[in-house]
C-alpha cells in the first residue's frame, strides 16, 4: 500500500492512501457476493444466481459505497501504523478516486489526521500581576440595601383611582413602527411608570388612565434605543390597561432587618451586607488575578492543538443552549435577537471563548506535568467543603448532589486546576492596586474576563470522542 505523508501543522497530518488493485478487486468481489444473497434473478433462487447475472443488477452507487466501507478502515489502520502516526481523534476522510470496474480498479483517499496538542511553555514562575483592591463605601452598602428593599416591595391591586407615577401597569400593548408592512401584534406587557428606560413620552400618555381604558398615540424611539431596528423611528402605540398595581416599598428599619436580613437591627444588617460585598469583591479580584496569570503564560508559550478540540467545545455549548431553550420554550431566533446578535456572531463568540479555554487548559496541564502537581487524598474533600460554604449547605449535601449527577470527574478537575493556580500564585509577584472608591462595585464583576477563575478553567481539555467526516464515496 502506498502512503504519501504531509505534515500540515504541528497538530495535523495528511495521509494520501492508495490501496493495491488486488485488494480493491477482492473488496468489489465481496460486495457482489453480499448483494447476491438478496438480489432476485429470474430463474434462480435468491443467493444461488451466478455472479455474472448478479453484477449488472447491483446499483453502481451502492457498489461504490459498500466497497469504500470495506476498504477505508483497514487501509487507514495500516497507514497510521506504517507511518507511525498517533491520531488524537477520528480523521476527516476525502475520496480522491475510486474505480470499481476492471481492469483499472483502484481506490485512493486522503485522511486528515488530528494529532495530540503540543505545548512549549514560556516562563511561568514569578509572573508580575496587579490585584485590584476596592474599598467598600457606605454608598455601596446603601445601594445594595436599596436593591433588597425594592425586591421586597409589594404590589397590591388598585381599583379606586387612575394610574400615577410609581405604579406598575399590566397592559395589552401594540406597537407599529413607521414603515412596517403589517400592524403590530398585541403583547401582554408590564410597564413601570417612571422607569428611566421607558420610551420618552410614554409615562405622560399612561398617567391618568384607568382599568379597561384604551388609548392610541404616537412616540419616537430615542436614537440610542437598545433595539437598533427601532432606534430613532416613530411608531404608533395602542394601549389597553388590564390592571393597575401600586408599588409599596417597605421602610428601612429594624423590622425590615429582622424580616429580610436575618439581623436584629438595621445597623447589623448593614454590617453583614458590607461583609458580603467585601467577600464578593475579593473573590472577583482573585479571579481576575488568576486569569491574568494564565493569560500571560499563554501569551509567552507555544500552544498548538487540532481544530477538533474547538469544534467539540462549540458543538457541546450549542447543544446545551438548545436543550435549555427547549426547556424554557424559547426559540433560538428570539434568544439571539434579545442578545442583539446573529447566529454567525454567536457561533464566532463561542469559538473565541472555546479557544481561550483550550489554551488556558493546555497550559495548566503542561505546568502540572512539569511540576508533578497531582490530586492528593483530601483535595476533592476540600473542594466540596468550599462549595458547601459558598452555597450555605453541608458537604454531605454537596457530595450527594455530585454523586446523583455524576459530576465527580468535573469536581476533581476543578480541584486540580485550583491546585495548579495556587502554585502559580505562590510564585507570582502580585501588587495590590487601590481602585477609586467611587468605582461601581455592583458592576465590577461585569468587567471580569470571560471564563476567569479556577472553577471555570479545565486543566485538561477532554479528548473528543469523534469528529466530522467527509464520507469517502
Summarize the structure in words.
With 473 residues, the chain is of the alpha+beta class. It has three domains: 2-116, Alpha-Beta Plaits (2-Layer Sandwich); 128-138 and 258-456, Trigger factor, C-terminal domain (Trigger factor, domain 2), CATH 1.10.3120.10; 154-245, Chitinase A, domain 3 (Roll). The protein is 43% helix and 18% strand. It has 13 helices and twelve strands. The chain has helices at residues 21-36, 51-54, 60-82, 138-151, 202-206, 254-260, 266-299, 307-328, 332-339, 343-371, 379-390, 395-404, 408-427; strands at residues 2-9, 12-19, 92-99, 106-114, 118-120, 128-133, 168-177, 187-192, 214-220, 234-245, 302-304, 429-434. It has a four-stranded antiparallel β-sheet. The chain is extended. 22% of the residues are buried. The model is unreliable at 443-459 and 466-473 (pLDDT under 50).
Descriptive key words:
single chain, 473 residues, alpha+beta, Alpha-Beta Plaits, Trigger factor, domain 2, Chitinase A, domain 3, 3 domains, four-stranded antiparallel sheet, 13 helices, 12 strands, extended, disordered C terminus
Strand and helix layout:
Elements: E1 2-9, E2 12-19, H1 21-36, H2 51-54, H3 60-82, E3 92-99, E4 106-114, E5 118-120, E6 128-133, H4 138-151, E7 168-177, E8 187-192, H5 202-206, E9 214-220, E10 234-245, H6 254-260, H7 266-299, E11 302-304, H8 307-328, H9 332-339, H10 343-371, H11 379-390, H12 395-404, H13 408-427, E12 429-434
Parallel strand pairs: 6-12
Antiparallel strand pairs: 1-2, 2-4, 3-4, 5-11, 7-8, 7-10, 9-10
